[in-house]
Write a structure and sequence with these properties.
binds 3-methyl-2-oxobutanoic acid, alpha/beta, TIM Barrel
Length: about 270
C-alpha cells in the first residue's frame, strides 16, 4: 500500500537515506517500484529526456499530467510526485492551486513539486498546501530560470545566504521535502543539518538526506550528456542499438521471421 509522502520524513528521522528517480512511463515506474525506490518524480526533465527538447521550458502541463497518470499506474505502492512545468504556477496563487489539483485529480499524484523559494514562490507553495496538496520545494540550480540566470549555475558559498533563506522560507511554508539541485557539497550538507524536512540532492554531493537522478541518464539513454554528478549504471543504449541492428540484419537477410513465427492454416498448425 502507498503510505504517502510521510515516509520521507520518517526516513530522515531514522537516519535512513532516501532513494528516488524520475520516471515518465508505466513500465519504468513499475521497475522502479520493484527496485525499491522511496518515491518517483515525474520531472519536467521529460521535455528533454523523452521529447528531445533543449531545455525543460517547453514541458506541457497536459502532457505532464498524462505521463503522471501512466507512472501512477506503474507504481501504485509508492509516492508519485508531479513536477509543475514552467508557466503553470507563476501567474497567481489561484493558477498554481488549480494546476496543482489537476496533478492529483487527473494524474493520480500524491504531491507536486515546484521550483524556487523567493517571496512569490513561497506564496504559491502556501496557497497549494492550504488547498490540501502536499508540496516538495526545489532550490539551488533552477532549470526553469535559466533565461534569467543565463544558464545552469551551481550554487557555491557566495550564494549561501539566499539559498538558506529560501530553503527555510519553504520549510516554514510547509513543504514536506526540498530538492537541492547543483549545490556545492558542504553547503548542501550544512543546509541538510539545519532543516527539519528531508533534502533530496541532485548534483549536491554526499550529505543530503536522499538522492534523485533522471532515470534516462543513469541508464545510459542520454547520449553524450555526462555532467560531473552523474554515474551511469547501465548502457541500455548499447543493448537497444544491438537489438535493432540485429533485427534489421535478419529482416534483410530473410532470417526473420522464421516458420515458427508464422500463422498457418488451422489444419496445418
Ligand atoms: O525535472 C526533474 O527531473 C527534476 C529533478 C532534476 C529533480 O526536477
Amino acid at each position: 500500500m502507498n503510505k504517502g509522502i510521510g515516509v520521507l520524513m520518517e526516513k530522515k528521522r531514522k537516519g535512513q537515506r532516501i532513494v528516488s528517480l524520475t520516471a515518465y512511463d508505466f513500465i519504468t515506474a513499475r521497475l522502479e517500484e520493484q527496485a525499491g525506490m522511496d518515491f518517483i518524480l515525474v520531472g519536467d526533465s521529460m521535455a528533454m529526456a523523452v521529447f528531445g527538447e533543449e531545455t525543460t521550458l517547453t514541458a506541457d502541463l497536459d502532457v505532464m499530467i498524462a505521463h503522471t497518470r501512466a507512472v501512477r499506474r506503474g507504481a501504485p505502492g509508492i509516492p508519485v510526485i508531479g513536477d509543475m512545468p514552467f508557466g503553470s504556477y507563476e501567474r497567481s496563487d489561484s493558477q498554481a492551486v488549480g494546476n496543482a489539483a489537476r496533478f492529483l485529480s487527473e494524474g493520480g499524484a500524491d504531491a507536486v513539486k515546484l521550483e524556487g523559494g523567493n517571496g512569490r514562490m513561497v506564496s504559491r507553495v502556501r496557497a497549494i498546501i492550504d488547498s490540501g496538496i502536499p508540496v516538495m520545494g526545489h532550490v539551488g540550480l533552477l532549470p526553469q530560470s535559466i533565461r534569467k540566470t543565463g544558464g545552469y549555475r551551481v550554487v557555491y558559498a557566495d550564494g549561501r545566504d539566499a539559498l538558506f533563506r529560501e530553503a527555510h522560507d519553504l520549510q516554514d511554508a510547509g513543504v514536506f521535502a526540498i530538492v537541492l539541485e547543483g549545490v556545492e557539497e558542504r553547503l548542501a550538507g550544512d543546509l541538510t543539518a539545519e532543516l527539519d524536512v528531508p533534502t533530496i540532492g541532485i548534483g549536491a554531493g554526499r550529505y543530503t538526506d536522499g538522492q534523485i537522478l533522471v532515470v534516462n541518464d543513469l541508464l545510459g539513454l542520454s547520449g553524450e550528456f555526462r555532467p560531473k554528478f552523474l554515474k551511469v549504471y547501465a548502457r541500455i543504449d548499447r543493448a537497444v542499438l544491438e537489438a535493432l541492428e540485429t533485427y534489421a540484419e535478419e529482416v534483410r537477410s530473410g532470417a526473420f521471421p522464421e516458420e515458427g513465427h508464422a500463422y498457418h492454416a488451422r489444419d496445418d498448425k
